[in-house]
Amino acid sequence: MLRRKAYDALQQWKKEKNKKCLLVQGARQTGKTYIIECFGTEQYDEMLEINFKETPDAAEIFKGSLKVDDLLMALRFRYPDKKLIPGSTLLFFDEIQECAEAITSLKFWANDNRYDVIASGSLLGIDYKRASSYPVGYVDYLKMHGLDLEEFLWALGITEDMIASLRDYFDKKQVIPDVIHNQMMQYFRTYMALGGMPEIVNSYVSEHDFSKADRLQRALLQGYQYDIAHYAVAEEKVKAEKCFLSLGKQLLDKDNHKFQYKEVEHGGRAQKYYSSVEWLLRADILQQCRLVTDVRYDLDDYARDDFFRAYTTDLSLLLPMKDYSLKQHIVENTLQGNSKGGIYECVIADLLGKKDYPLYFYKKESTKWELDFLFQKEGAVIPIEVKSGNSKAVSLNLFMKSRQDIPIAYKLHDGNIGAAEDRIWSLPLYMAMFL
């Protein structure tokens, strides 16, 4: 079993008194079902699981009265082998997006509070089957992503105390011994080549076969294309797929990574494709990094919705859009040209996005300044510049000289930890997991 941070979050939820129902969201194949099944089996005397996609007729249970006692009676008749004991039974409603009434019922389970209830589903954000009454205020949310870098290191056998020692170097801003740094960069490049989808990571950890991982990535990409075709409304199906598949070109073939509709099709315009991008964002297939017109808190006040970069929510989705040789160049550190800068930018977007930070960037044409990423913490804005090598961060240096109100900034690069200059710390790329 891959160790996931989500398991710790589930345990914390279980300890709460008068808890709400828990809705676990996220893109397909991020491990939602698996981790909840493990949690239910290990932490409860009994677990009743209903997958509304596998057994669509189970939705009949929720077609009539949604009073908890009526639902319990229907569940007992449907599943007579299950002992539904209050306080020691977990009810798990998987693929709940397929049953609008089950979503509505979460309000009544939360009010009743005799049973712990977890619901899970993909594509919940697209609202293609609207619940008759959404249970606002009766549900807590847990967002699941593919494995982040720290979880990937756990899968490789890197222990918590080893990661804690790396964090100590980060906290004290001390140079990391070369033998450790070089090995960590190799792990980092392996993560870039694989992404964080659990099935792919599991396969690689077991067999160390990049070609098999590539086949699994391509199958996953096809699965996402199927979801777009199956769930998108008719007028969005083809457009959303074109926007999604354009990311290989948008991010890895161009120097400018702004999302450009002309790369979706010749003469493409926002008027035609903007709603398709919005659909992909709500479906957790894309994440967005928006341009800001000024670098001040709150960044959202300065963000433009019409000027953005779009990244896949996991690198496992981006990599199969390109030839297999991309993986070889990543692992062997022989990438050249736009692909090199593009993939390093994408992996940092991946790591920050998996921390649920809203992402922003800054670009000023009059000065040619460009800051790759901005995020906010405790009321402060933190700029980041990403370097695939160890070159100077010219834009970041000039920006920080002009802005004494910014407390700290980071240059993420292929090198070791470097001393602060104008409040800029140079960090190895893999230390993005500690930001």
Mean pLDDT: 94
Question: In DSSP terms, counting alpha (H) and pi (I) runs of 4 or more, how many helices?
Answer: 16
What is the beta-strand fraction?
15-25%
- Spatial shape: globular
Strand order, main sheet: write it out.
7-6-8-9-10-11-13-12
How many β strands by DSSP?
13
Q: Give the fraction of residues assigned to helices.
A: 40-55%
SSE succession: HEHEHEHEEHHHHHHHHEEHHHEEEHEEE
Helices and strands: which structural class?
alpha/beta
Uncertain runs: none
Rg calculated over all Cα atoms: 23 Å
Q: Sheet bearing the most strands, described?
A: 8 strands, mixed
Ends distance: 27 Å
What is the total number of structural domains? 2
What does this molecule look like?
By secondary structure, the chain is of the alpha/beta class. The chain has 2 domains: 5-143, 3-Layer(aba) Sandwich (Rossmann fold), CATH 3.40.50; 149-434, no CATH class. 42% of the residues lie in helices and 19% in strands. The protein contains 16 helices and 13 strands. It has helices at residues 5-15, 32-43, 68-78, 100-112, 149-156, 160-172, 178-194, 198-207, 210-231, 237-245, 247-252, 270-282, 315-318, 325-332, 337-353, 394-402, and strands at residues 21-25, 46-51, 89-94, 116-121, 139-143, 286-292, 303-312, 359-364, 369-377, 380-386, 409-413, 418-421, 424-428. Strands 7-6-8-9-10-11-13-12 form an 8-stranded mixed beta sheet. The chain has a 5-stranded parallel beta sheet with strand order 2-3-4-1-5, with helices on both faces. Strand 8 and strand 9 form a beta hairpin. The radius of gyration is 23 Å and the shape is globular. It starts with a helix and ends in a 7-residue tail after the last strand.
